[in-house]
Design brief:
The chain has about 250 residues and is α+β, with helices and mostly antiparallel strands. It contains five helices and eleven strands.
């Protein structure tokens, strides 16, 4: 029998499931990924789901995704009709998602907004780039991205400042938080792709082997029911916060 990491089911009805995804779990099969995925967990736990007429048979129930090493709240559909409705809510920006991230440096203001264009990196195809202007991308190859943020706490570690921020997505682009915070000089600690020499050194010294990014809050309405969920920071990230000095 396949052994999956512990996945907490936060909410469930006959149409959808809200789970707390652990870091290290891939959402669906993809190029270069051969480990067990969240899709495998879903069809193992609910075998009847696999028999339904999904638009993409390789991704049954997958409404949206989190990166492999991002933890937190996710919505899964239990039937194709629910999938269609939930994906429509995402397209209409009626699903509100808030993340917690530990990033390098201090912010000049306690709250702000990041607006940029995000497109695929011209050389590293699995990587995204955030810029205010794209000269080297074809029309349609870049998309607007917007993130609201608020600084919750400031920390100090080995003479360097770090900030715990709450980031709310106004759009849902690939790697949006990771690439945008790197672009403004505040990379997410532990991020193996969007980093700087300073953030890499801090991650190494903190012994953090995943990005400090957690899908903390999720709210939406479905079938006239308002649904709100909160997921606390997982123990491995709480351990990191206990190592650093709170300056606020």
């Amino acid at each position: 029998m396949t052994q999956f990491p512990k996945i907490n089911i936060i909410f469930e009805n006959h149409n959808l499931i809200v789970i707390d995804k652990p870091a290290g779990l891939v959402v669906h099969p993809g190029a270069g990924e051969h480990a067990e995925t969240l899709v495998d967990w879903l069809v193992t736990k609910y075998p009847e789901i696999k028999k339904l007429n999904w638009p993409d048979i390789s991704r049954p129930g997958i409404v949206h995704r989190l990166d492999k090493d991002t933890s937190g709240l996710m919505i899964l559909a239990k039937n194709p009709e629910a999938l269609k409705k939930l994906q429509s809510l995402f397209r209409l920006h009626r699903v509100h998602k808030t993340y917690l991230a530990l990033v390098s440096g201090r912010f000049e203001k306690p709250a702000g907004e990041i607006k940029s264009l995000i497109g695929r990196h011209p050389k590293a195809r699995r990587k995204q780039v955030s810029r205010s202007i794209f000269f080297d991308f074809e029309p349609g190859k870049k998309r607007e991205a917007q993130t609201q943020y608020q600084v919750l706490k400031e920390y100090s570690y080995l003479g360097q400042f770090l900030s715990l921020v709450e980031a709310t997505l106004e759009t849902g682009r690939t790697h949006q938080i990771r690439v945008q915070f790197k672009a403004i000089g505040h990379p997410v600690i532990g991020d193996p792709i969007y980093n700087t020499k300073l953030s890499r050194n801090l991650s190494k010294k903190l012994k953090l082997n995943r990005q400090f990014l957690h899908a903390h809050k999720l709210s939406f309405s479905y079938a006239d029911q308002k649904l709100n969920f909160v997921s606390n920071i997982p123990p491995e990230l709480e351990k990191i916060l206990s190592k650093i000095y709170n300056t606020t």
